[in-house]
Protein backbone atom coordinates (compact mmCIF):
# COMPACT_ATOMS: atom_id res chain seq x y z
CA UNK A 1 0.00 0.00 0.00
CA UNK A 2 2.78 2.42 0.91
CA UNK A 3 4.62 1.87 -2.39
CA UNK A 4 1.43 2.38 -4.39
CA UNK A 5 0.80 5.69 -2.59
CA UNK A 6 4.36 6.83 -3.31
CA UNK A 7 4.04 5.96 -7.00
CA UNK A 8 0.65 7.66 -7.22
CA UNK A 9 2.00 10.82 -5.58
CA UNK A 10 4.96 10.91 -7.99
CA UNK A 11 2.57 10.44 -10.92
CA UNK A 12 0.24 13.25 -9.77
CA UNK A 13 3.15 15.63 -9.14
CA UNK A 14 4.52 14.81 -12.60
CA UNK A 15 1.14 15.27 -14.28
CA UNK A 16 0.79 18.72 -12.72
CA UNK A 17 4.41 19.86 -12.83
CA UNK A 18 5.54 18.92 -16.34
CA UNK A 19 2.69 20.68 -18.21
CA UNK A 20 3.27 23.75 -16.01
CA UNK A 21 6.95 23.66 -16.91
CA UNK A 22 6.21 23.39 -20.63
CA UNK A 23 3.74 26.29 -20.48
CA UNK A 24 6.22 28.36 -18.47
CA UNK A 25 9.04 27.74 -20.95
CA UNK A 26 6.77 28.64 -23.87
CA UNK A 27 5.68 31.85 -22.13
CA UNK A 28 9.18 33.06 -21.19
CA UNK A 29 9.81 34.93 -24.48
CA UNK A 30 6.20 36.12 -24.66
CA UNK A 31 4.65 38.85 -22.53
CA UNK A 32 3.28 37.32 -19.38
CA UNK A 33 4.33 35.48 -16.26
CA UNK A 34 6.49 32.82 -17.93
CA UNK A 35 9.28 32.96 -15.37
CA UNK A 36 6.83 32.76 -12.47
CA UNK A 37 5.01 29.80 -14.01
CA UNK A 38 8.34 28.03 -14.60
CA UNK A 39 9.35 28.69 -11.01
CA UNK A 40 6.00 27.35 -9.81
CA UNK A 41 6.50 24.24 -11.94
CA UNK A 42 9.95 23.66 -10.44
CA UNK A 43 8.43 24.06 -6.97
CA UNK A 44 5.71 21.50 -7.67
CA UNK A 45 8.18 19.07 -9.24
CA UNK A 46 10.63 19.55 -6.36
CA UNK A 47 8.11 17.91 -4.06
CA UNK A 48 9.06 14.54 -5.57
CA UNK A 49 12.10 14.95 -7.84
CA UNK A 50 15.60 15.81 -6.59
CA UNK A 51 16.72 17.34 -9.89
CA UNK A 52 13.78 19.74 -9.76
CA UNK A 53 14.63 20.75 -6.20
CA UNK A 54 18.15 21.61 -7.31
CA UNK A 55 16.76 23.60 -10.26
CA UNK A 56 14.29 25.39 -7.98
CA UNK A 57 17.06 26.48 -5.61
CA UNK A 58 19.28 27.61 -8.49
CA UNK A 59 16.43 29.56 -10.08
CA UNK A 60 15.52 31.30 -6.83
CA UNK A 61 19.19 32.23 -6.30
CA UNK A 62 19.36 33.76 -9.78
CA UNK A 63 16.13 35.68 -9.22
CA UNK A 64 17.41 36.99 -5.86
CA UNK A 65 20.64 38.17 -7.51
CA UNK A 66 18.70 39.93 -10.26
CA UNK A 67 16.50 41.60 -7.65
CA UNK A 68 19.52 42.77 -5.63
CA UNK A 69 21.22 44.15 -8.74
CA UNK A 70 18.06 45.98 -9.83
CA UNK A 71 17.58 47.40 -6.34
CA UNK A 72 21.21 48.63 -6.23
CA UNK A 73 20.87 50.17 -9.69
CA UNK A 74 17.64 51.92 -8.72
CA UNK A 75 19.30 53.30 -5.58
CA UNK A 76 22.24 54.52 -7.67
CA UNK A 77 19.91 56.26 -10.11
CA UNK A 78 17.91 57.73 -7.24
CA UNK A 79 21.07 59.09 -5.61
CA UNK A 80 22.24 60.65 -8.87
CA UNK A 81 18.94 62.52 -9.20
CA UNK A 82 19.30 64.17 -5.78
The DSSP helix count reads 3
Hey, roughly how much beta strand do the residues contain? Answer: under 5%
Give the tally of β-strands.
0
Q: Report the radius of gyration as a whole number of Å.
A: 18 Å
Q: What general outline do the C-alpha atoms trace?
A: elongated
Question: Sheet bearing the most strands, described?
Answer: none
Helix content: over 70%
Order of helices and strands: HHH
Query: Residue-averaged pLDDT, rounded?
Result: 90
Total of domains: 1
Structural class: mainly alpha
Poorly predicted regions are none
| Beginning-to-end CA distance, first to last residue | 67 Å
Oligomeric form: single chain
Describe the structure in brief.
With 82 residues, the chain is mostly helical. The chain has helices at 2-27, 34-46, 50-81.
How is this structure best described in words?
The protein is built from 3 helices and no strands. With 82 residues, it is an all-alpha fold. It has one domain (2-81). α1 (2-27) packs antiparallel against α2 and α2 runs antiparallel to α3 (50-81). It starts with a helix and ends with a helix. The model has no long low-confidence stretch (mean pLDDT 90).
Layout of helices and strands, plus pairs?
Layout (H helix, E strand, L loop, with lengths): L1 H26 L6 H13 L3 H32 L1
Helix pairs in contact: 1-2, 2-3
Salient structural properties:
single chain; 82 residues; mainly alpha; 3 helices; 87% helix; elongated
